[in-house]
Structures are given as C-alpha cells and as structure tokens.
Amino acid sequence: MSAASFYDLEGTLVSTNLVHTLGFYAKNQPSLWRSFKKSTTTLLSLPVFAITDQYSRKVFNDLFFKRYRGETEDRLRFFADELFESVLKPAVFPGSYDLIDKSRRLGLRQVVVTGALDFSVAPLMRHFGIEEYVANRLEFVNGVATGRLLPPVLAAATKASWIRNYAERERINLSDSYAYSDSMSDLPMLSIVGHPAAVNPDMRLRQTALHHDWPILNLK
C-alpha cells in the first residue's frame, strides 16, 4: 500500500480565505458586489457569524455560499485564472513549495482537501502540480448558481470521511500518511492519519498539537 499527504488549502498553503475569493468575484460582478456589501455590513460584521464558524463549518458554508446565488457558471469560471494571478498566487506561503517538494521526494501522493470552490482553486492546483484534489461545488441550474453546495459539503468531519473513502479506494495506508491544516475545524482530518501536523495553526489547534506532540510548522 502507498501513502499520501493530505493538505487543507486556505490558511495552510495560502494566506487567503473564502471572503477574499468572494470579494474578488464581487468586484468583477455588479450584482454580486451589491450582495457582498450587504453581507459585509450585516452577517460578516456580527459576532454571531464568527460564532457560527466556530460552532459548525458546514453551517458557515451553507450561509456563506448563498452570496453566489444568481451568478452564472460561465462568468465565475471565466474569472478563475484572474483570481489565481491577482489573489491566490501572491498569497502562497513561501514554505508551501518546500513542503510539497519534500513530500513528493518521499514518494507520497499529493492530495488537497479544501472547502473552497472547485473552479476557484483549479488554477492553483495546476500551479502546485497537484492533480488530486477535492473541493466544494456550487449547484447550478440552467447555468445559474442556486446558492447551495452540492453534497458532500467538505468541512470538518466530512473531510475525514472523504479521506477514508479515498484511502480505501486507492489503497492508501493512512497510518503512513500525513495531513496538514491550520484550523481546529480540521481536527477529524488530522486525527485519522499517522502523521498529523499543524501549519500556521490557530490558537486551539496549536494547543492541541502541543498536547499531542504533533509538529507545528510555520510556512510564512
């Protein structure tokens, strides 16, 4: 059996987050910009929204991606390369390249498991040379986004479930595999591999990593 390295993306390999991506698309699409400004002055400014993210990343995703409702698939995909060049590529942590390169030299398969949108991260995956990745997908009806995510919604325990299924299908030995994340929400994903590591971790994940004697990496 082979082994793999599983990476979270935003906050782990790049410094951007979901709001940066939505902000970029909003600036290029007037209808989304109006929705973004509304969400920024209401939902995103309320402590309850931050609490929702802490309580359930899945609930956060369900609320957040409603901002894309009414946008066309063609237009979202059209701007993906510009998003990469202007937002994502400059946000790659310097140490990300070394981490991925060292992992490859160990003969590990490179797999990204992210809650970001599939079309938004595809150019970044090509940049990293990573062919295996899974991301959240917007539902489109007649080419227009409904604001809902297609299942499975990749967050928290769902990421771990996807990795387990992937490992069984691809004959990956999880005990010999690695996982990297910056967020406590990815604790289920980190806990199912033999070699978890906290990367640029938030406070809760840092404390957990120290408690379990997991490596703590700074890729900044």
Topology as H/E string? EHHHHHHHEHEEEHEHEHE
How are strands sequenced across the largest beta sheet? 3-2-1-6-7-8
Average pLDDT: 85
Stretches with pLDDT under 50, minimum 5 residues? 35-55
The global form is globular
Q: Examine the coordinates and then state which fold CATH places here, giving the name of the CATH topology.
A: Rossmann fold
Q: Name the CATH superfamily assignment.
A: HAD superfamily/HAD-like
Count of discrete structural domains = 1
The CATH class is: Alpha Beta
- Biggest sheet architecture: 6 strands, parallel
Any guess at the CATH architecture?
3-Layer(aba) Sandwich
Give the helix proportion (percent range): 40-55%
Structure overview:
The strands form 2 sheets. This protein has a 6-stranded parallel beta sheet with strand order 3-2-1-6-7-8. Strands 4-5 form a two-stranded antiparallel sheet. It has one domain: 3-Layer(aba) Sandwich (Rossmann fold). 49% of the residues lie in helices and 18% in strands. α10 (187-191) links the parallel β6 and β7 (195-199). The chain has 11 helices and 8 strands.
